[in-house]
Structures are given as C-alpha cells and as structure tokens.
Structure prediction request, 832 residues.
Amino acid sequence: MKDALAKEAQAGSAEGAVTQERCADAMTRAERTLAEVLADVLRADRLSVDSHFFEELGADSLVMAKFCARVRKRGDLPSVTMKDIYRHPTIRSLAAALADATPKPVQPPGSAAIEAATSTSAREYILCGALQALFFLAYSYLAVVGIAWSSRWVASGSSAAEACGRLVLASSAAFLLASAVPIAAKWVLIGRWKTQQIRLWSLAYVRFWIVKTLIRSSPAARMFIGTPVYLLYLRALGARIGPGAVIFSRRVPVCTDLLTIGAGTVIRKEAIFQCYRAQAGRLELGPVTLGRDVFVGERSVLDINTSMRDRAQLGHASGLHSGQAVPAGERWHGSPAQRTDVNYLRAPSAQASTWRRAVYSTAAVLVVLLLCLPLLAGGTTLAIDGASSLAQVLDPTAGASTLVALLIEAVILSLVIFFGLALAGLLLVVAVSRLLSGFVKPDVVYPLYGFHDAAHRAIARIGRMRFFTYLFGDSSLIVHFLQWLGYRLKPVVQTGVNFGTEVMHANPSLSAVGSGTMVADGLHLVNDEVSSTSFRVSRVAIGPHNFVGNDVTYPAGGRTGDNVLLGTKVLVPLDGKIREGVGLLGSPCFEIPRSVERDMRFDHLRTGEALRRGLAAKNRCDLQTIGIFLVTRWLGVFLFASLYLAAVELYDVLPHGLNAVLFALSVVVTAVFLCGVQRCIVALHPTRPTICSVYHPDFWWAERIWKVHPIHYLHAFDGTPFKNLLWRLMGVQVGRRTFDDGAHISEPTLTAIGDESVLNYRSKIQCHSQEDGTFKCDRTLVGAGCTIGVGAFVLYGVTMGDGSVLAADSFLMKGEDVPRGARWGGNPAMEM
Prediction:
C-alpha cells in the first residue's frame, strides 16, 4: 500500500514538473492547470500566464471554445464560458476570476434537470405524413374547383363592365373565404387553446398542424398587419387584445387563446410570440401575457410562460426565456433579458383617435378588395389568356388543351411572369422608394393611421422585399442596387462582398453605411421609432471599416463608430460611449478584440493589384451565379405554371381528383426541382471544411450554393415528415423522426442531425462565417434528441451532445461542445 502511494506521489510530482516546464511563471494550482489545458489546445511547448490569448498567443474564438470545452470536462475546475475568456484574456486573470467559484463536478450522462423526452413512433410518423398529404390534396381540390368556377362566372359577363364587377366580387369572396376558413377550422378542430403538451406526430398534432398552417397562410393575416383590422382578426381567433394596441410583426401567433395583449401595447416587426414551442418529442403550449402600454422591440422572442407587466419594455434583439417576467415599468434587454436603463420607446405620443383608426382600417380593406385583389386576379387572367393566344399563333397545329399547347403556354406565361415582373418590379421598387421618401421627413413625429403613415408603410414593405437583395447580394451589383434605392454608401470601396443576400430597412434614403464596411446576411436597419399612436423616421449610419455579422438589428442612435466588429445577433448599444476599434458580441453586448491573427492572414489580397485581379475574377463568377439563379428560378416557375395550367385548363377533360393532384404537385415538384438544383451545384464543387479568402474559388462556390438555396420554398413543408426528405435530398444527414418547424440550414452537406431532434421556428444552423474577408466553414453535429429553440442560431464547428437543449433566441458560438443532456442558453450561449 505504501509503495502504491509513493508511486502515485512520484507521478503527481512528475506531472507537476512537466506543467511547471510548460508554464514557469504559474503561481497557483489553478493557473498551472489552466495553462496545461491551453498549451495542449494550442500545441505549445511553453506559454506565460500573462500572455494575452488573442494578441500574444494567436488564439481565436474557435480555439478558445475548444479550451472551454476541455475545462468543463475536468472535475477540478469551475466551468469557463466564452464570456469569461473575453473578459479575462490571460491565464492569470482568468484563474483569479474563477478563484471564488465552486468547482462543478462532472455529472454522469442524463443527470441534467431536463424533463424526460416524449417518445414518438414510426407508425404515428407515417400516419401523420399521410394525413397531412390528404389535407393538402383536399385543399387543392377545393382550390381547383373554386378557381375553375369563378373563372367561368367572371368570363360569362355580358359586357366589360359586368366582367370587371364580377371579378371584384369573385376575388373579394375568395379572399374573405380564405380568411374565414382558419377561424372556422380553429374553433371546430381545437376549440380554445389551453396550456398543455401535444405529442409530435400524434392525431392531436395533426389537428394542431392543420390550424397552424391555415392561420399562417391566411391572406388577412398578411395584408392587414399593423392595422386595427389585424387585431380584430386575432380576436376572432381567440386572442385577448386591448384597444389601441399595435402589432407590426409578421410572425403570426398560433395558439391565440393563450395570448393576452393590453391596451396601447406596441409589438415591433419580426418579433416572435407564437405561444408554443417544440421540445423533446412534444409541443408545449403556454401563455404570453403583455400588460398595458408594453413595448416589444424588433426581432425579439417571447417564449412560452412569459409576461410583461404594464409599461414594461423589451429591447430590440432580446429574448424572454420561459418563466421570465418583466415587472411593471421596468426596461429589459438581452437574451435572456435583464434589467437596463435604456429607453426603447422613443417616439413621442400623438393624437390617434378611434375615428382615425376606423377610417384607416376601412380604407385598407377597400384598397385590398377593390384594387389589389382585382388587379392581381385580372392580371393573372390576362397573362394566361395572352399566353394561350400566343401559343396558338406559334403552333397552330397544336389543339387546345393538348400537352404541347400547355407546355408552350407555360413557357410563355412563366417568361412573362418571372422576367417581366422582375424587370417591372425593379423599376417600381426604385421609383416608389424615392418618390414616397419625400413625403416622410426625418425626425418629424407623425400620427399613425394617416397619409404619412401609409407612405412610410409602403416604403418599409418594399424594404422587406427579398428577391432583389437575394439576386444582387454577395456581388458587386448589390452596392448599385442599394444606391438606386437611396442608400448613402459613398465613397464606395468595392470588395464584391459589401452586403449579403438579406438587407432590410424601413427607409432607404435615411440609411448610410461607411466606406470599407462588410455586411453579412440578415442586416436590419431600424430607421423608424413607433409608439401606439405615432411614428417618426431617423437616420441610421454604420461607420466605415466595420464588419457586421449575421442577423444584426441596427437601430437609429446606435453607439458604434469606425472600425467595429459587430458579432452575429449582437445587441447594438444605444447608451454609453461611441465604440470604435473594438468588437462587440452578445446580447447585452460586451467588448472583444476587433480582429485576430487568423482573420488577417489574407489582408494582402484586399489591396492593390491582388485586389483588382481577385475582384475581377469574383465578378465574373458572380455573374455566372446570378445567371444560374435566374435560369433555375425561372424553370421552377415554368414547372409550377405547367402543372397549374394542366389542373385548371383540363378541368373538363380530366377527373376532378386528378386536377387536384396536379394542383398539389405544382408545389411539390417545384420544391423537389429546386432542392435537386442545389444538390447538383454542391456535387460540382462539394463544400468542405476550409479557411480561405473571399477571393478564392471555394468561397465563390459557397456563395453559389447560398444563392440557389430554396429555403423560402421549403417552408411550405414545415412541421411535416416531407421536410426531412427534402433536407436529405439537399445533403443534410437527418435522423429518424426529426421535427423541423421552420429552420434554415445554410450548408446542408456539412450538417448532421440525430434521431428525433427538434428544430424550432426561425432557428438557424450556419456552418460558416466570413469576418473581414476570411471565409471559414466547418461541420456541425446535432446529436439525437436535441432541441434548438425558437429563433436560436448555431454556428460552425459545433457539437451538441445527445439530448441537449439550446434555449430560445440563443447564439451558440463556433466550436462549442455542448455536453450530453445539458441545457444551454443566452447570447452567447452557456450552461443554464
């Protein structure tokens, strides 16, 4: 026994001697242990406990995430987070910060305090898919019958005036019926929503999915957002909403009986408050309660079982996690939200009487019913008739309703609709934005529900149109397009990656981005400030030589200046000093190094002759990518038009059931085709883990994959087993019975998802980043039974252990290793 103890002591002494050699200036056991772990990660022979992780040791966030993961696996040290690393960037300062923390023992797998998963079965999974397909087929049948009958009734008018009158009546009736069906279905199939759990893929889930799909596709829920009419619609669905509330968010709540909104409350655009979430094999339904005069900021997330008392505020890009409650009169921000002194409700009140609201609502309804719908229906009918006539001229030998005639008609119709509307839309978007901007003056308070409000909403709606930014984004052309809209970008330093494919604004003429700034996807410039009675627009300016990461919401008055890195999902500060020459990360944000050595290795390619050659080559590749995008999207429209025309024009030739099948296939075949296109692009140049310059062909092909990504078409299959089939077609390794309620996976072939995992609404898995012109991508592994919360964001190089949970509105940084069964949350995410 004594010999064993002596050997153990000798081994410990030898280990301590080795550590002492690798870090001679370590003074405490914690410093020696941390230094040993870091040296192993960096593969360094020696290091100093006073060396700066990023500036002197050359580490980066990916390396330090691996360091944190190794520290967490040890039982003799407290857990270390990336926030700790940035706040204490040396071994000595980190060890001192952790000195008072209690070491957390390593827990056995499955010991985390997470409710046990609800089991699902393959039989229910298959049956659910079959019932969903039958529902879609039945809906298609009703649509075909309605379109065929209304077309004949309108065409039978004895005069042009009578035909126009019938067109107005038919289109209005169709709109009102499509808006009323979700209300009726909700009350018939569900009754009142209540706090409960629903097993995924069960018959109860099928009823939930039918109602959810109908509500989110309701035309009234799309056309009247931000008006009192929308509040009436939500009340008809069971929501309790007080007078004078304003909801600008397009994220339509589903479990409306669990939603309470007090009088005078304001909910900004892109906020999510759906009153349900998916987790561990089940849906969880819970209340969201907002008191009087509450303010909910842009892109915020309200999880189930959350509440805000009277006059409370939740800032932009913030999240309330389940169980959080904001006391009356307090202001909170961040994810999870915490108290702050920042005032997010900045627009002074104005006079907005009940009479004003009623007149505005009536005008909105009349514009939709008497102008928008007849123009849409009549334009479509004229386009189809014109295409049919031209098809007969081009091929007189083809009889009516033959396959050849239908294909020729579909070619003509798809060309007119796709390229004609693209060209006309480009001219209209630019003209309307510039024309209407003159009617809304900056820093002037206007009442809601008036002419100026209507002009402002039209500008903002145009600013949310994604086709043109998707078309021109990630290329040199995006700069010219934004300048046409009114952006102030001069002097322009063209890099070919100035902006990504998603850029939104409330007013382009009041948007400015400094010279040399690079912007990733998802930038949202908040040019407007609103209350329940008023609004005003203000200038938003991002300084020069910035890098703006993904999904950044930048409000007017943002306190950042020159040479700033704004990390993914960062909460842009509205108080304090002007930040310059630093990086900002998290919500609430904290300072990090502006750049690291890894991101500067390709700086020589961003100047002089190297930049000229690289940019010219990238521009040529980008033009090819834009051409591929246009051709493949047109082919998708052609396939849709072919099947749609066959379903409608062969109504008297084919059995009506077959017409319904053709109508349903118009959606399915188009989605399958676009997924196949994306997979073919990947096959030509597979995406592999890499680090390269944005002027390297590997990055250009990655941009091409993003450009042809059919994510907007995939949302039609959210919550169904068919979504998994489409992800597999695109290259994602999807496990059995995975539930996807509307996630975005940017690099399918680099993503693996285990059995029975859950991807919640608006969650995102992105296997790349491109800080300062350096492109990095790596694989991401989501284990079996994992849950990614509503609005959560997962970066590359991440591993989520089986059964782990990422909370709503969280940001899981690159390289993180989430232990099995753990629950993480926050921005940046850490163990909860």
